[in-house]
Design a protein that fits this description.
The protein has 152 residues and is of the alpha/beta class. The chain has one domain: Rossmann fold (3-Layer(aba) Sandwich). Helices cover 53% and strands 12% of the residues. Helix 7 links the parallel strand 4 and strand 5. The chain is globular. The termini are close together. 30% of the residues are buried.
Length: 152
């Protein structure tokens, strides 16, 4: 394996594109292929990431023809990914400062704080968030613009 390891922070709206075919799903598939192909790749999430994903999967099952069985299966696949989970308690003070200074939600600020803590870009499909943090000293990148290196 000659591919360099990829490190980034991903939020729930990126990860859920693995299961729901929507704009950005191809980029998400390419991004997560690095996690499978190179055990040195590091994708970081705050611990509430799984709560966000469970809520989205449940809502999707409630509102569409997506079945509870499929939701459970997709959650199992998500839990099986080699994600590096960080405690929100360790990030809370920094996240609060970021939220207050930037006018973003506390939840979004946790991803930004984690990105800062692990010195890796935060990749999100939330274009509004990317715009809100444009020009600020944070490494927030849109999924659509994130340079995903090809696997050899």
């Amino acid at each position: 394996m000659n591919d360099p390891p990829l490190a980034c922070v991903v939020d729930a709206n990126v990860a859920l594109k693995l299961f729901f075919e929507q704009s950005g799903s191809d980029q998400t598939d390419a991004l997560f292929a690095h996690l499978e192909a190179n055990t040195r790749s590091r994708f970081y999430v705050p611990d509430f990431f799984y709560a966000e994903c469970a809520s989205a999967l449940a809502n999707y099952a409630r509102l569409t023809d997506y079945t509870p069985k499929q939701a459970r299966q997709d959650m199992a696949e998500l839990l099986a990914l080699a994600l590096h989970v960080r405690s929100t308690a360790d990030l809370a003070a920094e996240a609060l400062d970021i939220a207050l200074a930037s006018g973003i939600s506390g939840y979004d600020a946790f991803y930004v704080a984690l990105s800062h803590r692990v010195n890796a870009p935060f990749v999100t499909a939330d274009e509004k968030l990317v715009r809100a943090l444009s020009g600020k000293p944070y490494r927030v990148q849109s999924l659509s613009a994130f340079d995903i290196p090809p696997l050899s």
